[in-house]
Design a protein that fits this description.
With 204 residues, this protein is mainly α. Helix content is 65%, strand content 0%. One fe (iii) ion is lined by residues 41, 45, 70-71, 148.
Length: 204
């Protein structure tokens, strides 16, 4: 085991025979990790992310890869999520500890790095923040978060139609709808809203 910066450097420069996997190889692994329904969702996110990346001039290959991996940790049990947060040194605040499901995005980024040999930060951070949003999101962050909201297998929920209408004309407006609706949903259910969501909204 190398310290993380050394390991990342080694991967980027292909030292020590460090691996990279193709999209198709990762797709097979993801299909085996996820339920059929979640895999169909994932491929829907890939489709939407590619279209959004083309529309807004983002790196299409990176968007495709981030979308493929965005929910790779989603189906870990709550116990496994808790344990991996500890083992992988992912700090959990009160809200993350209470609503451990949100950590699937943080764990997903870490799993993408460790298990799928992804070193690209643009991809990793888009995975990391796809559930909550984050202050000053990058174009890639926005594309993955919105693709997750609007992908074609999604069934009706509040805001979906409006987001689909706005997605290709006003990325920020579409995301504002998605984040606001998510907050409303959580508030209705008495669930906590993570502060990163408010930060995201304020910076869109
Ligand atoms: Fe997710
Ligand atoms: Fe998702």
């Amino acid at each position: 085991m190398l310290p993380r910066p050394a390991e990342d450097y080694a991967r980027r420069n292909n030292l020590y025979g460090v691996k990279t996997l193709s999209f198709e190889e990762i797709k097979k692994l993801i299909a085996s990790r996820l339920s059929d329904k979640r895999f169909a969702h994932t491929m829907g996110v890939v489709e939407s992310a590619v279209k959004l990346a083309e529309r807004y001039g983002a790196d299409v290959e990176k968007a495709r890869m981030a979308a493929l991996l965005h929910d790779c940790a989603k189906e870990y049990s709550e116990d496994k999520k808790r344990a991996l947060c500890e083992i992988w040194d992912i700090p959990t605040d009160d809200i993350l500890a209470k609503k451990i499901s949100i950590t699937h995005s943080l764990l997903g980024a870490e799993s993408a790095r460790r298990d799928f040999y992804i070193t690209d930060n643009e991809i990793l951070r888009a995975i990391r923040y796809h559930t909550t949003g984050f202050k000053d999101m990058t174009l890639m962050d926005k594309i993955i978060m919105l693709a997750d909201f609007i992908e074609p297998t999604r069934e009706y929920y509040d805001g979906l139609k409006e987001m689909r209408e706005l997605a290709f004309t006003d990325l920020n407006a579409a995301l504002r709808v998605g984040i606001t609706e998510t907050m409303r949903y959580n508030e209705r259910k008495g669930l906590p809203v993570h502060p990163w969501g408010y930060d995201a909204l304020a910076s869109l």
